[in-house]
């Protein structure tokens, strides 16, 4: 194991207070995730758009998220994480307030697209700030807590949104705007700028893989074979994963299940993530991240593959429980690996590019899954998705050694830079830290 992989028990007090303020701000944002889950319903039932038109708007929103994810990462490295995060949230608040106040499907669709252009920046920037704030040996735990905040908030938000939507869709936009504003105020008041100067020498000058450290621009990240291979493989995994919220309800509907059954599966997924994310994280922490992520995606393949034989709600609950366990072990590990593959000067760009893989999967996955479902049927869809997950697990296992070499070099430079920064601080500054 690398020094970042060496098992270490992370206590709550081992994570800096600033991290917990950032964690709270993210929890607030995810509690307020009202608009996106209800976007198609709002466009069709409240605005009067056709299903096809609503689909185009959602696709445009997704394109905006892809752009803002990448741009947010680049700007976080150039002008600072805190400025980009607060700016993204405040601009999102303005658009969210404006949408219920305008008339016309075209104008509302345009504003939703603009909202996507602002909204997608926050995720990669927060991941970047976690990498800045937390020393390498505690990052695995930090990203697990971070992922838990997302799932905890998302478990609460849609439930509240359902009640608000029954009264007025405008409430969804205004309540989400209010919570995003609270989050931005927390960041403004409690989270300082986390960007640190890049070390004068380190792995970025001689890292593993083409393009590693060949400058600090976005092109140097895209030329990094070690990272881009990892990102491309995780994109394929994300395409498989999004089938759980796109084609799964279609398959269940064809089998005669009411929509409430799919809602029960989403609830099961959220409850399991909230209850088991932290206990499983402590278990997974005994092994290297590469081993955990390979096994987790293998478990995902089992759960997805079993859906080919599922027809009853009970069987679907079993399959969802299985691939949820895989989800717990894959996403937080992948995000922390991304943080450890990046030097401090390009950490935002790395997280931005990694965030794009998830956004693109949200656009590609439903189309690919729908084509397979229409052409070959549900059984072929789930068996094919399971096979893809197995391929992903194998590719991650084969490429693990190159990632471990890079992480060792980057973490060593990061640790040295943090130690040098602490030595240069005055006693008063250290006391405040």
From TrEMBL:
Cross-referenced Gene3D superfamilies: MFS general substrate transporter like domains (1.20.1250.20)
Q: Which InterPro entries match?
A: MFS, MFS_dom, MFS_trans_sf, MFS_Transporters, Sugar_transporter_CS, Tet-R_TetA/multi-R_MdtG-like
Protein localization: Cell membrane
Q: Which residues form the Major facilitator superfamily (MFS) profile domain?
A: 18-404
Q: Which GO terms describe its cellular component?
A: plasma membrane
Per UniProt, what is one GO molecular function of this protein?
A: transmembrane transporter activity
Transmembrane regions listed in the UniProt entry: 20-41, 47-72, 84-102, 108-126, 147-165, 171-189, 226-242, 262-279, 291-318, 380-398
Annotated Pfam families: MFS_1 (PF07690)
Transport among the record's keywords? yes
Chief place of localization? membrane
Give UniProt keywords alphabetically: Cell membrane, Membrane, Transmembrane, Transmembrane helix, Transport
Q: In its keyword annotation, does this UniProt entry include RNA-binding? A: no
Q: List the membrane topology term(s).
A: Multi-pass membrane protein
Q: Which family does it belong to?
A: Belongs to the major facilitator superfamily. TCR/Tet family.
This chain belongs to the protein called: MFS transporter
Can you name the source organism?
A: Cellulomonas shaoxiangyii
């Amino acid at each position: 194991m690398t020094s970042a992989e060496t098992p270490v028990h992370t206590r709550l007090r081992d994570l800096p207070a600033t991290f917990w303020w950032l964690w709270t701000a993210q929890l607030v944002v995810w509690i307020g995730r009202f608009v996106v889950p209800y976007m198609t319903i709002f466009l069709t039932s409240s605005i009067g758009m056709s299903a096809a038109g609503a689909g185009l708007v959602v696709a445009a929103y997704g394109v905006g998220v892809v752009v803002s994810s990448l741009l947010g990462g680049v700007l976080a490295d150039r002008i600072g994480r805190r400025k980009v995060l607060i700016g993204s949230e405040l601009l999102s608040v303005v658009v969210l307030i404006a949408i219920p106040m305008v008339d016309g499907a075209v104008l509302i669709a345009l504003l939703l697209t603009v909202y996507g252009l602002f909204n997608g920046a926050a995720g990669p920037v927060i991941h970047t700030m976690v990498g800045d704030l937390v020393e390498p040996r505690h990052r695995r735990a930090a990203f697990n807590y971070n992922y838990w905040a997302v799932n905890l908030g998302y478990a609460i938000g849609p439930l509240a949104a359902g009640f608000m939507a029954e009264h007025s869709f405008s409430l969804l936009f205004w309540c989400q705007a209010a919570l995003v504003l609270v989050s931005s105020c927390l960041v403004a008041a409690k989270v300082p700028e986390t960007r640190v100067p890049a070390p004068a020498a380190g792995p970025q000058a001689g890292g593993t893989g083409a393009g590693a450290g060949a400058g600090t621009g976005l092109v140097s990240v895209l030329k990094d074979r070690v990272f881009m291979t990892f990102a491309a493989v995780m994109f394929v995994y994300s395409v498989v994963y999004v089938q759980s919220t796109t084609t799964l309800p279609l398959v269940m509907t064809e089998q005669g299940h009411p929509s409430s059954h799919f809602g029960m599966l989403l609830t099961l997924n959220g409850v399991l993530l909230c209850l088991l994310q932290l206990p499983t994280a402590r278990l997974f922490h005994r092994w290297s991240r590469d081993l955990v992520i390979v096994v987790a995606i293998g478990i995902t393949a089992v759960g997805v593959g079993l859906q080919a034989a599922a027809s009853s709600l009970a069987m679907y609950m079993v399959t969802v429980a299985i691939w949820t366990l895989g989800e717990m072990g894959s996403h937080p590990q992948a995000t922390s690996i991304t943080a450890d593959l990046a030097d401090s000067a390009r950490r935002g760009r790395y997280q931005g590019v990694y965030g794009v893989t998830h956004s693109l999967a949200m656009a590609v996955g439903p189309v690919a899954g729908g084509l397979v479902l229409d052409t070959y049927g549900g059984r072929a869809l789930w068996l094919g998705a399971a096979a893809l997950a197995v391929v992903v697990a194998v590719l991650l296992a084969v490429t693990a050694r190159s990632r471990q070499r890079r992480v060792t070099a980057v973490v060593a430079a990061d640790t040295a830079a943090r130690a040098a920064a602490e030595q240069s601080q005055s006693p008063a500054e250290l006391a405040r830290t």
